[in-house]
Amino acid sequence: MAIPTAFSGAKLESLSSSAAASPASIGLFCNPGRVRRLSIQKGLFNSGIRCEVAASDVVDQSQSSGNVTSSSSLSALEQLKSSAADRYTKERSSIVVIGLSIHTTPVEVREKLAIPEAEWPRAIGELCNLNHIEEAAVLSTCNRMEIYVVALSQHRGVKEVTEWMSKTSGVPVTEICKHRFLLYNNDATQHIFEVSAGLDSLVLGEGQILAQVKQVVKVGQGVTGFGRNISGLFKHAITVGKRVRTETNIAAGAVSVSSAAVELALMKLPESCHTTARMLVIGAGKMGKLVIKHLVAKGCTKMVVVNRSEDRVSAIRDEMKDVEIIYKPLNEMLKCAAEADVIFTSTASETPLFMKEHVVDLPPVGASVGSLRLFIDISVPRNVGACVNELEDARVYNVDDLKEVVAANKEDRLRKAMEAQAIISEESKQFEAWRDSLETVPTIKKLRAYAERIRVAELEKCMSKMGDDISKKTKKAVDDLSRGIVNKLLHGPMQHLRCDGSDSRTLSETLENMHALNRMFSLETDISVLEQKIRAKVEQTQK
Protein backbone atom coordinates (compact mmCIF):
# COMPACT_ATOMS: atom_id res chain seq x y z
CA MET A 1 0.00 0.00 0.00
CA ALA A 2 1.40 3.32 -0.99
CA ILE A 3 1.38 6.01 1.65
CA PRO A 4 1.06 9.60 0.46
CA THR A 5 3.37 12.36 1.49
CA ALA A 6 3.25 13.79 4.98
CA PHE A 7 0.55 16.16 6.12
CA SER A 8 1.08 19.67 4.89
CA GLY A 9 -0.18 22.94 6.21
CA ALA A 10 0.65 25.29 9.02
CA LYS A 11 2.09 23.29 11.90
CA LEU A 12 3.74 25.63 14.31
CA GLU A 13 1.20 28.35 13.71
CA SER A 14 -1.69 26.05 14.59
CA LEU A 15 0.15 24.99 17.71
CA SER A 16 0.93 28.48 18.88
CA SER A 17 -2.57 29.74 18.23
CA SER A 18 -3.84 27.54 21.03
CA ALA A 19 -3.26 30.42 23.41
CA ALA A 20 -6.11 32.28 21.73
CA ALA A 21 -8.39 29.30 21.43
CA SER A 22 -11.92 29.23 22.74
CA PRO A 23 -12.55 27.49 26.06
CA ALA A 24 -11.81 23.80 25.95
CA SER A 25 -14.64 21.42 25.34
CA ILE A 26 -14.80 18.00 26.86
CA GLY A 27 -14.47 14.95 24.59
CA LEU A 28 -15.19 11.36 25.64
CA PHE A 29 -12.90 8.93 23.87
CA CYS A 30 -14.59 5.57 24.13
CA ASN A 31 -15.67 3.27 21.33
CA PRO A 32 -18.77 1.41 22.51
CA GLY A 33 -17.89 -1.67 20.48
CA ARG A 34 -14.43 -1.81 22.03
CA VAL A 35 -15.79 -1.50 25.56
CA ARG A 36 -18.42 -4.17 24.96
CA ARG A 37 -15.83 -6.58 23.65
CA LEU A 38 -13.39 -5.94 26.45
CA SER A 39 -16.07 -6.19 29.09
CA ILE A 40 -16.93 -9.66 27.81
CA GLN A 41 -13.47 -11.03 27.13
CA LYS A 42 -11.45 -9.19 29.73
CA GLY A 43 -13.98 -8.51 32.42
CA LEU A 44 -12.74 -11.53 34.34
CA PHE A 45 -9.28 -10.02 34.61
CA ASN A 46 -9.58 -6.28 34.96
CA SER A 47 -11.60 -4.10 37.25
CA GLY A 48 -12.79 -2.17 34.20
CA ILE A 49 -11.74 -0.35 31.08
CA ARG A 50 -11.18 3.34 31.55
CA CYS A 51 -12.68 5.68 29.03
CA GLU A 52 -10.39 8.68 28.99
CA VAL A 53 -11.90 12.13 29.28
CA ALA A 54 -9.63 14.95 28.23
CA ALA A 55 -9.89 18.63 27.51
CA SER A 56 -10.22 19.25 23.81
CA ASP A 57 -7.42 21.42 22.52
CA VAL A 58 -9.44 23.84 20.43
CA VAL A 59 -7.14 25.46 17.94
CA ASP A 60 -7.65 28.73 16.15
CA GLN A 61 -6.33 28.04 12.66
CA SER A 62 -4.50 31.23 11.81
CA GLN A 63 -3.60 32.05 8.24
CA SER A 64 0.05 31.58 7.32
CA SER A 65 1.87 32.68 4.24
CA GLY A 66 5.05 31.24 2.77
CA ASN A 67 7.65 29.32 4.76
CA VAL A 68 8.08 29.66 8.49
CA THR A 69 10.81 32.22 9.03
CA SER A 70 13.34 32.12 11.82
CA SER A 71 11.85 35.11 13.58
CA SER A 72 8.28 33.81 13.43
CA SER A 73 9.48 30.42 14.70
CA LEU A 74 11.13 32.03 17.71
CA SER A 75 8.08 34.18 18.30
CA ALA A 76 5.85 31.12 18.20
CA LEU A 77 8.24 29.34 20.55
CA GLU A 78 8.00 32.15 23.08
CA GLN A 79 4.21 32.13 22.84
CA LEU A 80 4.15 28.40 23.44
CA LYS A 81 6.50 28.64 26.38
CA SER A 82 4.21 31.11 28.06
CA SER A 83 0.78 29.87 26.97
CA ALA A 84 1.07 26.09 26.68
CA ALA A 85 3.45 25.18 29.49
CA ASP A 86 0.70 23.68 31.63
CA ARG A 87 -0.56 21.53 28.79
CA TYR A 88 2.77 20.11 27.70
CA THR A 89 4.83 19.91 30.88
CA LYS A 90 2.75 19.39 33.99
CA GLU A 91 1.39 16.20 32.46
CA ARG A 92 3.80 13.99 30.61
CA SER A 93 3.24 12.86 27.05
CA SER A 94 0.74 10.01 26.70
CA ILE A 95 1.13 6.62 25.06
CA VAL A 96 -1.95 6.20 22.86
CA VAL A 97 -3.24 3.31 20.75
CA ILE A 98 -5.55 4.04 17.83
CA GLY A 99 -6.64 0.63 16.66
CA LEU A 100 -9.02 -1.37 14.51
CA SER A 101 -9.08 -5.13 15.00
CA ILE A 102 -11.02 -8.21 14.00
CA HIS A 103 -13.06 -7.69 17.19
CA THR A 104 -14.31 -4.23 16.20
CA THR A 105 -13.87 -3.82 12.44
CA PRO A 106 -14.97 -5.88 9.39
CA VAL A 107 -12.27 -7.08 7.01
CA GLU A 108 -13.49 -4.84 4.18
CA VAL A 109 -12.50 -1.81 6.28
CA ARG A 110 -9.30 -3.30 7.73
CA GLU A 111 -7.92 -4.17 4.32
CA LYS A 112 -8.16 -0.54 3.18
CA LEU A 113 -6.28 0.65 6.26
CA ALA A 114 -3.60 -2.07 6.17
CA ILE A 115 -0.01 -0.83 5.79
CA PRO A 116 2.56 -3.22 4.26
CA GLU A 117 5.66 -3.82 6.35
CA ALA A 118 7.89 -2.13 3.77
CA GLU A 119 5.93 1.10 4.33
CA TRP A 120 6.16 1.12 8.15
CA PRO A 121 9.27 3.37 8.34
CA ARG A 122 7.67 5.91 6.03
CA ALA A 123 4.45 5.79 8.04
CA ILE A 124 6.39 6.39 11.27
CA GLY A 125 8.08 9.41 9.71
CA GLU A 126 4.79 10.90 8.54
CA LEU A 127 3.11 10.31 11.89
CA CYS A 128 5.95 12.02 13.75
CA ASN A 129 5.63 15.02 11.44
CA LEU A 130 2.18 15.62 12.90
CA ASN A 131 2.02 18.48 15.40
CA HIS A 132 1.33 16.53 18.55
CA ILE A 133 3.10 13.23 17.85
CA GLU A 134 6.61 12.57 19.20
CA GLU A 135 7.04 8.82 18.60
CA ALA A 136 5.15 6.20 16.61
CA ALA A 137 4.94 2.53 15.61
CA VAL A 138 2.66 0.55 13.28
CA LEU A 139 1.37 -2.97 13.92
CA SER A 140 -0.50 -4.10 10.80
CA THR A 141 -1.54 -7.78 10.46
CA CYS A 142 -4.42 -9.71 8.94
CA ASN A 143 -6.37 -9.32 12.21
CA ARG A 144 -5.47 -5.79 13.31
CA MET A 145 -4.27 -2.36 12.26
CA GLU A 146 -2.96 -0.51 15.31
CA ILE A 147 -0.96 2.69 15.55
CA TYR A 148 0.97 3.38 18.76
CA VAL A 149 2.08 6.94 19.42
CA VAL A 150 3.53 9.14 22.13
CA ALA A 151 1.34 12.24 21.99
CA LEU A 152 1.87 15.70 23.50
CA SER A 153 -1.93 16.01 23.70
CA GLN A 154 -4.27 13.04 23.78
CA HIS A 155 -7.19 14.63 21.98
CA ARG A 156 -5.20 16.50 19.33
CA GLY A 157 -2.93 13.50 18.80
CA VAL A 158 -5.86 11.14 18.24
CA LYS A 159 -7.49 13.63 15.88
CA GLU A 160 -4.33 14.07 13.81
CA VAL A 161 -3.60 10.34 13.57
CA THR A 162 -7.20 9.55 12.61
CA GLU A 163 -7.10 12.20 9.88
CA TRP A 164 -3.77 10.79 8.67
CA MET A 165 -5.26 7.27 8.54
CA SER A 166 -8.17 8.60 6.53
CA LYS A 167 -5.92 10.47 4.11
CA THR A 168 -3.63 7.50 3.49
CA SER A 169 -6.40 4.92 3.12
CA GLY A 170 -9.30 6.82 1.61
CA VAL A 171 -11.58 5.63 4.42
CA PRO A 172 -13.67 8.55 5.79
CA VAL A 173 -12.88 9.76 9.29
CA THR A 174 -16.46 9.02 10.36
CA GLU A 175 -16.07 5.40 9.26
CA ILE A 176 -12.77 5.01 11.13
CA CYS A 177 -14.27 6.55 14.28
CA LYS A 178 -17.18 4.13 14.03
CA HIS A 179 -14.90 1.11 14.36
CA ARG A 180 -11.73 2.29 16.11
CA PHE A 181 -10.83 1.79 19.74
CA LEU A 182 -8.68 4.19 21.78
CA LEU A 183 -6.51 3.22 24.74
CA TYR A 184 -4.22 5.45 26.81
CA ASN A 185 -1.13 4.94 28.96
CA ASN A 186 -1.66 1.98 31.36
CA ASP A 187 -4.49 0.60 29.24
CA ALA A 188 -2.34 0.91 26.11
CA THR A 189 0.50 -0.91 27.87
CA GLN A 190 -1.85 -3.65 29.04
CA HIS A 191 -3.22 -4.00 25.51
CA ILE A 192 0.07 -4.51 23.66
CA PHE A 193 1.18 -6.97 26.35
CA GLU A 194 -2.04 -8.96 25.85
CA VAL A 195 -1.58 -8.77 22.09
CA SER A 196 1.98 -10.09 22.32
CA ALA A 197 0.88 -12.87 24.69
CA GLY A 198 -1.82 -13.95 22.24
CA LEU A 199 -4.71 -13.00 24.54
CA ASP A 200 -6.24 -10.55 22.07
CA SER A 201 -5.88 -12.90 19.09
CA LEU A 202 -8.81 -14.59 17.44
CA VAL A 203 -6.96 -17.83 18.23
CA LEU A 204 -5.92 -17.61 21.89
CA GLY A 205 -2.19 -18.12 22.45
CA GLU A 206 -1.26 -18.31 18.76
CA GLY A 207 2.44 -17.65 18.26
CA GLN A 208 2.47 -15.71 15.00
CA ILE A 209 1.51 -12.42 16.66
CA LEU A 210 4.64 -12.52 18.85
CA ALA A 211 6.75 -12.80 15.70
CA GLN A 212 4.86 -9.84 14.25
CA VAL A 213 5.53 -7.73 17.37
CA LYS A 214 9.22 -8.64 17.07
CA GLN A 215 9.12 -7.48 13.46
CA VAL A 216 7.84 -4.06 14.56
CA VAL A 217 11.01 -3.64 16.65
CA LYS A 218 13.25 -4.98 13.89
CA VAL A 219 11.80 -2.62 11.27
CA GLY A 220 11.78 0.32 13.70
CA GLN A 221 15.48 0.10 14.59
CA GLY A 222 17.21 3.23 13.35
CA VAL A 223 13.96 4.86 12.19
CA THR A 224 13.59 8.42 13.48
CA GLY A 225 10.39 8.50 15.49
CA PHE A 226 10.62 4.93 16.82
CA GLY A 227 11.79 6.50 20.05
CA ARG A 228 12.71 5.45 23.56
CA ASN A 229 9.17 5.12 24.93
CA ILE A 230 7.66 3.21 21.99
CA SER A 231 10.68 0.97 21.42
CA GLY A 232 10.81 0.26 25.17
CA LEU A 233 7.10 -0.61 25.11
CA PHE A 234 7.43 -3.08 22.23
CA LYS A 235 10.62 -4.66 23.58
CA HIS A 236 8.91 -5.19 26.92
CA ALA A 237 5.91 -6.65 25.09
CA ILE A 238 8.20 -9.24 23.49
CA THR A 239 9.49 -10.18 26.95
CA VAL A 240 5.90 -10.55 28.18
CA GLY A 241 4.91 -12.70 25.19
CA LYS A 242 7.82 -15.05 25.78
CA ARG A 243 7.25 -15.24 29.53
CA VAL A 244 3.52 -15.98 29.22
CA ARG A 245 4.17 -18.82 26.80
CA THR A 246 6.97 -20.20 28.98
CA GLU A 247 5.22 -20.02 32.36
CA THR A 248 1.66 -20.91 31.36
CA ASN A 249 0.12 -23.55 29.13
CA ILE A 250 -1.68 -20.97 27.02
CA ALA A 251 0.04 -22.22 23.86
CA ALA A 252 -0.87 -25.84 24.57
CA GLY A 253 -3.17 -26.94 21.78
CA ALA A 254 -3.29 -23.42 20.39
CA VAL A 255 -3.98 -23.07 16.70
CA SER A 256 -2.93 -20.41 14.23
CA VAL A 257 -4.99 -18.53 11.67
CA SER A 258 -3.70 -20.99 9.07
CA SER A 259 -4.73 -24.07 11.07
CA ALA A 260 -8.11 -22.50 11.80
CA ALA A 261 -8.52 -21.99 8.05
CA VAL A 262 -7.86 -25.69 7.45
CA GLU A 263 -10.32 -26.61 10.23
CA LEU A 264 -12.96 -24.37 8.68
CA ALA A 265 -12.52 -25.99 5.29
CA LEU A 266 -12.91 -29.45 6.80
CA MET A 267 -16.02 -28.30 8.69
CA LYS A 268 -17.60 -27.25 5.39
CA LEU A 269 -16.62 -30.41 3.50
CA PRO A 270 -18.39 -33.75 3.88
CA GLU A 271 -16.34 -35.90 6.25
CA SER A 272 -16.02 -38.65 3.66
CA CYS A 273 -13.87 -36.49 1.37
CA HIS A 274 -11.49 -34.91 3.92
CA THR A 275 -8.49 -36.80 2.55
CA THR A 276 -9.55 -36.94 -1.10
CA ALA A 277 -10.69 -33.36 -1.83
CA ARG A 278 -8.47 -31.55 -4.34
CA MET A 279 -6.55 -28.87 -2.48
CA LEU A 280 -4.99 -25.74 -4.00
CA VAL A 281 -2.83 -23.36 -1.97
CA ILE A 282 -2.04 -19.98 -3.54
CA GLY A 283 0.95 -18.31 -1.88
CA ALA A 284 3.89 -20.10 -0.27
CA GLY A 285 4.83 -17.47 2.33
CA LYS A 286 4.61 -18.00 6.10
CA MET A 287 0.82 -18.35 6.14
CA GLY A 288 0.74 -20.56 3.05
CA LYS A 289 3.43 -22.84 4.45
CA LEU A 290 1.44 -23.27 7.66
CA VAL A 291 -1.69 -24.11 5.64
CA ILE A 292 0.27 -26.84 3.84
CA LYS A 293 1.61 -28.23 7.13
CA HIS A 294 -1.86 -28.39 8.68
CA LEU A 295 -3.35 -29.99 5.57
CA VAL A 296 -0.68 -32.68 5.81
CA ALA A 297 -1.41 -33.11 9.53
CA LYS A 298 -5.09 -33.72 8.62
CA GLY A 299 -4.18 -36.49 6.21
CA CYS A 300 -3.86 -34.68 2.89
CA THR A 301 -1.16 -36.36 0.76
CA LYS A 302 -1.41 -34.38 -2.46
CA MET A 303 -1.87 -30.68 -3.22
CA VAL A 304 -1.05 -28.02 -5.79
CA VAL A 305 0.81 -24.87 -4.71
CA VAL A 306 0.78 -21.75 -6.87
CA ASN A 307 3.54 -19.21 -6.19
CA ARG A 308 5.60 -16.59 -8.00
CA SER A 309 8.76 -18.66 -7.79
CA GLU A 310 9.45 -22.35 -7.22
CA ASP A 311 12.18 -21.85 -4.58
CA ARG A 312 9.87 -21.63 -1.58
CA VAL A 313 7.75 -24.51 -2.79
CA SER A 314 10.85 -26.66 -3.26
CA ALA A 315 11.97 -25.87 0.30
CA ILE A 316 8.56 -26.93 1.63
CA ARG A 317 8.65 -30.07 -0.50
CA ASP A 318 12.05 -30.97 0.97
CA GLU A 319 10.58 -30.72 4.49
CA MET A 320 7.60 -32.96 3.64
CA LYS A 321 9.07 -35.73 1.54
CA ASP A 322 6.09 -38.09 1.94
CA VAL A 323 3.64 -35.59 0.44
CA GLU A 324 3.11 -34.84 -3.25
CA ILE A 325 3.39 -31.07 -3.62
CA ILE A 326 2.99 -29.88 -7.20
CA TYR A 327 4.32 -26.42 -8.06
CA LYS A 328 2.54 -24.18 -10.59
CA PRO A 329 3.40 -20.58 -11.59
CA LEU A 330 0.98 -17.71 -11.10
CA ASN A 331 0.03 -17.55 -14.77
CA GLU A 332 -1.57 -21.01 -14.38
CA MET A 333 -3.62 -20.00 -11.33
CA LEU A 334 -7.06 -20.08 -13.03
CA LYS A 335 -6.30 -23.41 -14.69
CA CYS A 336 -5.36 -24.83 -11.28
CA ALA A 337 -8.50 -23.35 -9.70
CA ALA A 338 -10.61 -25.14 -12.30
CA GLU A 339 -9.21 -28.44 -11.06
CA ALA A 340 -9.53 -27.73 -7.31
CA ASP A 341 -12.32 -28.32 -4.79
CA VAL A 342 -10.85 -26.13 -2.02
CA ILE A 343 -8.70 -23.06 -2.69
CA PHE A 344 -6.67 -21.39 0.08
CA THR A 345 -5.32 -17.90 -0.67
CA SER A 346 -2.65 -16.15 1.37
CA THR A 347 -0.75 -13.69 -0.81
CA ALA A 348 0.30 -10.06 -0.32
CA SER A 349 -1.54 -8.94 -3.45
CA GLU A 350 -3.28 -5.60 -2.96
CA THR A 351 -5.88 -6.45 -5.62
CA PRO A 352 -8.20 -9.49 -5.64
CA LEU A 353 -6.99 -12.61 -7.46
CA PHE A 354 -10.51 -13.97 -7.91
CA MET A 355 -13.64 -12.01 -8.78
CA LYS A 356 -17.04 -13.27 -9.92
CA GLU A 357 -16.08 -13.13 -13.58
CA HIS A 358 -13.03 -15.33 -12.92
CA VAL A 359 -15.01 -18.05 -11.14
CA VAL A 360 -18.28 -18.13 -13.06
CA ASP A 361 -16.84 -20.14 -15.96
CA LEU A 362 -14.94 -22.67 -13.83
CA PRO A 363 -16.25 -26.23 -14.20
CA PRO A 364 -18.49 -27.37 -11.34
CA VAL A 365 -17.09 -29.55 -8.57
CA GLY A 366 -18.44 -32.99 -7.77
CA ALA A 367 -21.32 -33.90 -5.48
CA SER A 368 -18.87 -35.83 -3.30
CA VAL A 369 -17.50 -32.51 -1.98
CA GLY A 370 -20.93 -30.94 -1.58
CA SER A 371 -21.14 -29.40 -5.08
CA LEU A 372 -19.56 -26.20 -3.74
CA ARG A 373 -16.10 -24.87 -4.57
CA LEU A 374 -14.68 -23.41 -1.35
CA PHE A 375 -12.44 -20.34 -1.24
CA ILE A 376 -10.70 -19.93 2.14
CA ASP A 377 -9.13 -16.46 1.99
CA ILE A 378 -6.82 -15.57 4.92
CA SER A 379 -5.26 -12.54 3.24
CA VAL A 380 -5.68 -8.89 4.20
CA PRO A 381 -6.29 -7.18 1.82
CA ARG A 382 -8.55 -9.99 0.60
CA ASN A 383 -7.54 -12.12 -2.38
CA VAL A 384 -11.10 -13.19 -3.20
CA GLY A 385 -13.91 -10.73 -3.84
CA ALA A 386 -17.11 -11.08 -1.81
CA CYS A 387 -19.01 -11.06 -5.12
CA VAL A 388 -17.94 -14.69 -5.67
CA ASN A 389 -20.53 -15.61 -3.01
CA GLU A 390 -23.23 -14.61 -5.50
CA LEU A 391 -22.50 -17.76 -7.49
CA GLU A 392 -24.57 -20.83 -6.60
CA ASP A 393 -21.65 -23.24 -6.78
CA ALA A 394 -19.02 -21.26 -4.81
CA ARG A 395 -18.57 -20.08 -1.23
CA VAL A 396 -16.00 -17.60 0.09
CA TYR A 397 -14.75 -17.51 3.69
CA ASN A 398 -12.34 -14.87 5.00
CA VAL A 399 -10.46 -14.32 8.28
CA ASP A 400 -13.58 -12.96 9.97
CA ASP A 401 -15.32 -16.29 9.38
CA LEU A 402 -12.70 -18.13 11.44
CA LYS A 403 -14.59 -17.12 14.59
CA GLU A 404 -16.78 -20.14 13.97
CA VAL A 405 -13.76 -22.41 14.49
CA VAL A 406 -12.34 -20.77 17.59
CA ALA A 407 -15.67 -20.36 19.40
CA ALA A 408 -15.28 -23.89 20.74
CA ASN A 409 -13.79 -24.45 24.20
CA LYS A 410 -14.31 -20.80 25.12
CA GLU A 411 -14.33 -21.48 28.87
CA ASP A 412 -11.03 -23.33 28.68
CA ARG A 413 -9.53 -20.46 26.68
CA LEU A 414 -10.65 -17.90 29.28
CA ARG A 415 -9.20 -19.97 32.11
CA LYS A 416 -5.83 -20.08 30.38
CA ALA A 417 -6.02 -16.34 29.77
CA MET A 418 -6.57 -15.71 33.49
CA GLU A 419 -3.33 -17.50 34.26
CA ALA A 420 -1.50 -15.16 31.89
CA GLN A 421 -3.08 -12.01 33.32
CA ALA A 422 -1.08 -12.19 36.57
CA ILE A 423 2.15 -12.08 34.56
CA ILE A 424 0.88 -9.23 32.38
CA SER A 425 -0.16 -7.17 35.43
CA GLU A 426 3.27 -7.62 37.00
CA GLU A 427 5.08 -6.70 33.79
CA SER A 428 2.81 -3.68 33.23
CA LYS A 429 3.82 -2.29 36.63
CA GLN A 430 7.49 -2.81 35.79
CA PHE A 431 7.14 -0.97 32.48
CA GLU A 432 5.23 1.92 34.04
CA ALA A 433 7.91 2.20 36.75
CA TRP A 434 10.59 2.35 34.05
CA ARG A 435 8.64 5.02 32.18
CA ASP A 436 8.04 6.96 35.40
CA SER A 437 11.77 6.97 36.03
CA LEU A 438 12.29 8.85 32.75
CA GLU A 439 10.31 11.82 34.07
CA THR A 440 13.04 12.98 36.44
CA VAL A 441 16.01 12.40 34.12
CA PRO A 442 16.19 16.07 32.93
CA THR A 443 16.14 17.34 36.53
CA ILE A 444 18.81 14.86 37.61
CA LYS A 445 21.06 15.92 34.74
CA LYS A 446 20.52 19.63 35.39
CA LEU A 447 21.06 19.28 39.13
CA ARG A 448 24.32 17.41 38.57
CA ALA A 449 25.43 19.96 35.99
CA TYR A 450 24.54 22.81 38.37
CA ALA A 451 26.52 21.23 41.21
CA GLU A 452 29.45 20.50 38.90
CA ARG A 453 29.63 24.14 37.73
CA ILE A 454 29.80 25.32 41.34
CA ARG A 455 32.39 22.66 42.22
CA VAL A 456 34.65 23.56 39.30
CA ALA A 457 34.38 27.30 39.97
CA GLU A 458 35.20 26.94 43.67
CA LEU A 459 37.99 24.48 42.91
CA GLU A 460 39.59 26.98 40.54
CA LYS A 461 39.41 29.69 43.23
CA CYS A 462 41.02 27.34 45.74
CA MET A 463 43.79 26.33 43.34
CA SER A 464 44.58 29.93 42.47
CA LYS A 465 44.96 30.79 46.18
CA MET A 466 47.25 27.80 46.75
CA GLY A 467 49.66 29.00 44.08
CA ASP A 468 51.41 27.26 41.19
CA ASP A 469 53.88 25.22 43.19
CA ILE A 470 51.45 22.65 44.59
CA SER A 471 52.06 19.05 43.63
CA LYS A 472 49.85 16.96 41.33
CA LYS A 473 49.12 14.70 44.27
CA THR A 474 47.75 17.63 46.28
CA LYS A 475 45.69 18.86 43.31
CA LYS A 476 44.16 15.41 42.90
CA ALA A 477 43.44 15.17 46.62
CA VAL A 478 41.63 18.53 46.61
CA ASP A 479 39.75 17.58 43.42
CA ASP A 480 38.69 14.24 44.93
CA LEU A 481 37.62 16.01 48.11
CA SER A 482 35.38 18.42 46.18
CA ARG A 483 33.80 15.58 44.19
CA GLY A 484 33.19 13.57 47.34
CA ILE A 485 31.47 16.49 49.06
CA VAL A 486 29.25 17.15 46.03
CA ASN A 487 28.29 13.49 45.65
CA LYS A 488 27.37 13.16 49.32
CA LEU A 489 25.29 16.35 49.21
CA LEU A 490 23.49 15.17 46.06
CA HIS A 491 22.83 11.66 47.34
CA GLY A 492 19.71 12.64 49.33
CA PRO A 493 18.04 14.70 46.57
CA MET A 494 18.88 12.03 43.98
CA GLN A 495 17.31 9.31 46.13
CA HIS A 496 14.11 11.34 46.30
CA LEU A 497 14.04 11.69 42.52
CA ARG A 498 14.03 7.92 42.04
CA CYS A 499 10.79 6.36 40.82
CA ASP A 500 11.75 2.97 39.42
CA GLY A 501 9.52 0.74 41.50
CA SER A 502 12.32 -0.18 43.93
CA ASP A 503 10.66 1.64 46.83
CA SER A 504 7.22 2.77 47.96
CA ARG A 505 7.60 6.33 46.68
CA THR A 506 4.81 7.24 44.26
CA LEU A 507 5.22 9.11 41.01
CA SER A 508 3.28 12.03 42.50
CA GLU A 509 5.71 12.33 45.42
CA THR A 510 8.69 12.08 43.10
CA LEU A 511 7.33 14.79 40.80
CA GLU A 512 6.68 17.04 43.82
CA ASN A 513 10.31 16.58 44.81
CA MET A 514 11.39 17.32 41.25
CA HIS A 515 9.39 20.56 41.06
CA ALA A 516 10.73 21.60 44.49
CA LEU A 517 14.32 21.12 43.34
CA ASN A 518 13.57 22.99 40.11
CA ARG A 519 12.33 25.97 42.14
CA MET A 520 15.10 25.88 44.74
CA PHE A 521 17.93 25.70 42.23
CA SER A 522 16.19 27.53 39.33
CA LEU A 523 16.68 24.54 37.05
CA GLU A 524 13.60 25.35 34.91
CA THR A 525 13.34 21.79 33.69
CA ASP A 526 9.70 22.15 32.66
CA ILE A 527 10.33 25.04 30.30
CA SER A 528 13.48 23.37 29.07
CA VAL A 529 11.61 20.18 28.18
CA LEU A 530 8.86 22.17 26.48
CA GLU A 531 11.45 24.16 24.59
CA GLN A 532 13.09 20.98 23.33
CA LYS A 533 9.75 19.60 22.14
CA ILE A 534 8.71 22.76 20.37
CA ARG A 535 12.12 23.42 18.86
CA ALA A 536 11.94 19.92 17.37
CA LYS A 537 8.63 20.84 15.76
CA VAL A 538 10.10 24.14 14.53
CA GLU A 539 12.96 22.26 12.88
CA GLN A 540 10.50 19.91 11.17
CA THR A 541 8.61 22.80 9.63
CA GLN A 542 11.82 24.37 8.33
CA LYS A 543 13.05 21.20 6.56
TrEMBL record:
<keyword id="KW-0149">Chlorophyll biosynthesis</keyword>
<feature type="domain" description="Glutamyl-tRNA reductase N-terminal">
    <location>
        <begin position="98"/>
        <end position="248"/>
    </location>
</feature>
<dbReference type="InterPro" id="IPR018214">
    <property type="entry name" value="GluRdtase_CS"/>
</dbReference>
<dbReference type="GO" id="GO:0006783">
    <property type="term" value="P:heme biosynthetic process"/>
</dbReference>
<dbReference type="InterPro" id="IPR036291">
    <property type="entry name" value="NAD(P)-bd_dom_sf"/>
</dbReference>
<protein>
    <recommendedName>
        <fullName>Glutamyl-tRNA reductase</fullName>
        <ecNumber>1.2.1.70</ecNumber>
    </recommendedName>
</protein>
<dbReference type="InterPro" id="IPR006151">
    <property type="entry name" value="Shikm_DH/Glu-tRNA_Rdtase"/>
</dbReference>
<keyword id="KW-0627">Porphyrin biosynthesis</keyword>
<keyword id="KW-0521">NADP</keyword>
<dbReference type="InterPro" id="IPR015895">
    <property type="entry name" value="4pyrrol_synth_GluRdtase_N"/>
</dbReference>
<dbReference type="GO" id="GO:0008883">
    <property type="term" value="F:glutamyl-tRNA reductase activity"/>
</dbReference>
<dbReference type="Pfam" id="PF01488">
    <property type="entry name" value="Shikimate_DH"/>
</dbReference>
<dbReference type="InterPro" id="IPR036343">
    <property type="entry name" value="GluRdtase_N_sf"/>
</dbReference>
<dbReference type="Pfam" id="PF00745">
    <property type="entry name" value="GlutR_dimer"/>
</dbReference>
<dbReference type="Pfam" id="PF05201">
    <property type="entry name" value="GlutR_N"/>
</dbReference>
<dbReference type="InterPro" id="IPR015896">
    <property type="entry name" value="4pyrrol_synth_GluRdtase_dimer"/>
</dbReference>
<feature type="domain" description="Tetrapyrrole biosynthesis glutamyl-tRNA reductase dimerisation">
    <location>
        <begin position="419"/>
        <end position="523"/>
    </location>
</feature>
<feature type="domain" description="Quinate/shikimate 5-dehydrogenase/glutamyl-tRNA reductase">
    <location>
        <begin position="264"/>
        <end position="405"/>
    </location>
</feature>
<dbReference type="InterPro" id="IPR000343">
    <property type="entry name" value="4pyrrol_synth_GluRdtase"/>
</dbReference>
<comment type="similarity">
    <text>Belongs to the glutamyl-tRNA reductase family.</text>
</comment>
<dbReference type="GO" id="GO:0050661">
    <property type="term" value="F:NADP binding"/>
</dbReference>
<keyword id="KW-0560">Oxidoreductase</keyword>
<dbReference type="InterPro" id="IPR036453">
    <property type="entry name" value="GluRdtase_dimer_dom_sf"/>
</dbReference>
<comment type="pathway">
    <text>Porphyrin-containing compound metabolism; protoporphyrin-IX biosynthesis; 5-aminolevulinate from L-glutamyl-tRNA(Glu): step 1/2.</text>
</comment>
<dbReference type="GO" id="GO:0015995">
    <property type="term" value="P:chlorophyll biosynthetic process"/>
</dbReference>
